[in-house]
């Protein structure tokens, strides 16, 4: 998701550095809290905000587009939420900061589909990235994926199978649930009656 560059976003992030971390490696106090959840690619933040109220616990949200992240950050500030910590950056580099942190669940909502084959390696659900996510899970932890994109859904299932993940749940027609919150993309696709796919992976043994 790209937002048109807005001049307020960088100063806003810079003036809210207790909410938008510059290095998760220095956030030990927050990252030992439990239960702890991670969302990768939070977009404008509706899912993380909603889930942090519905499910409670502590939430880390990673988003590589600063202009989009700033919109999410503003919503977190306005809602006066103290159980959310954000990080501007790409998962691959942020992973290096959180290698030693263990999460109860990792959420991927409407990740970029990268439809061209030569770009598949950029997908968040390549087996290599799924294995990185696996190493961040506590025992009994899970990876929860939702998408409108059938190709990305099939790809994710294939990659998970190849990597040896327990596939706990998968569907091509996820109706939503009382324990779940819709992201901005999900609201948009549901308003157009697009089916939503969902996959839940269990933690794979080392
Ligand atoms: C299609 S949007 C969906 C946004 C939101 N999750 C939703 O469902 O409404 C995907 C988001 O993931 C972010 N993103 C994609 N790859 C990422 C990565 N490797 N690390 C961090 N953020 C990423 C993009 O910048 C974009 O905002």
Descriptive account of the structure:
- With 206 residues, this protein is of the alpha/beta class.
- Helix content is 34%, strand content 23%.
- The chain folds into two domains: 101 residues, Rossmann fold; 80 residues, 3-Layer(aba) Sandwich (Rossmann fold).
- The chain has eight helices and eight strands, in the order H-E-H-E-H-E-H-E-H-E-H-E-H-E-H-E.
- Strands 1-4-3-2-5-6-8-7 form an eight-stranded mixed sheet, with helices on both faces.
- Helix 3 links the parallel strand 2 and strand 3.
- Helix 6 packs across helix 7.
- The N and C termini lie far apart (34 Å).
- Bound molecules: S-adenosylmethionine.
- S-adenosylmethionine binds next to strand 3 and helix 8.
Using the CA coordinates, give the radius of gyration.
Answer: 16 Å
Percentage of residues in DSSP E strands: 15-25%
SSE string: HEHEHEHEHEHEHEHE
Major sheet description: 8 strands, mixed
Counted up, domains total 2
**CATH level 3 topology of the largest domain:** Rossmann fold
- Assigned CATH superfamily of the largest domain: Vaccinia Virus protein VP39
CATH architecture of the largest domain: 3-Layer(aba) Sandwich
Q: Tally the helices: what do you get?
A: 8
Note the overall shape.
Answer: globular
CATH C-level class of the largest domain: Alpha Beta
Q: What integer is the average pLDDT?
A: 97
Major sheet strand order: 1-4-3-2-5-6-8-7
- Structural class by sheet pairing and helices: alpha/beta
